């Protein structure tokens, strides 16, 4: 991935499915913060990021090989307009707070992101360009969190 990132100055979209079922006997995947930093440095036109995690154990953040900090470096270094996170349990309310100041983020899809709560909804309601939000099976977001989104005039809610 690092080698790929060196030649991706025009890359605008990445979709990764990280299947961790085969890694249960290993500590982490080879996708690390260093990989994310390389993408942030070399892929400055990246606009669409889609990450899906498959086969994760309940304590899986230790299995993925990168941190929320590394992920946010990538998000803050690139003009991400569309972000899709599926079972990204490393991503929590602090991540939502960081996203809320993202100047380009227009579309956010959170699917089975169990670490995002009502507090995260309060933060993301203030994202300057966010107009499309999809929440699916995010059990820690309640009616209280959804009500927080009512303050965001631009949002169109997905199902």
From TrEMBL:
GO cellular component: SCF ubiquitin ligase complex
GO biological process: SCF-dependent proteasomal ubiquitin-dependent protein catabolic process
Gene3D superfamilies, alphabetized: Ribonuclease Inhibitor (3.80.10.10)
InterPro entries associated with the record: Leu-rich_rpt, Leu-rich_rpt_Cys-con_subtyp, LRR_dom_sf
Superkingdom to which the source organism belongs: Eukaryota
Identification of the protein by name: Uncharacterized protein
Native organism: Lolium multiflorum (Italian ryegrass)
């Amino acid at each position: 991935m690092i080698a790929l990132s060196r030649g991706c100055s025009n890359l605008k979209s990445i979709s990764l499915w990280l299947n961790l079922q085969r890694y249960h006997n290993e500590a982490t995947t080879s996708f690390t913060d260093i990989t994310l930093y390389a993408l942030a440095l070399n892929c400055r036109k990246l606009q669409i990021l889609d990450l899906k995690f498959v086969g994760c154990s309940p304590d899986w953040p230790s299995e993925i090989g990168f941190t929320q900090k590394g992920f946010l470096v990538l998000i803050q270094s690139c003009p991400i307009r569309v972000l899709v996170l599926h079972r990204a349990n490393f991503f929590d309310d602090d991540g939502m707070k960081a996203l809320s100041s993202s100047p380009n983020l227009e579309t956010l899809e959170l699917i089975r992101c169990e670490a995002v709560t009502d507090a995260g909804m309060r933060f993301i309601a203030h994202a300057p360009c966010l107009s499309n939000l999809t929440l699916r099976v995010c059990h820690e977001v309640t009616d209280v969190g959804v009500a927080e989104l009512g303050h965001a005039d631009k949002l169109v809610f997905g199902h």
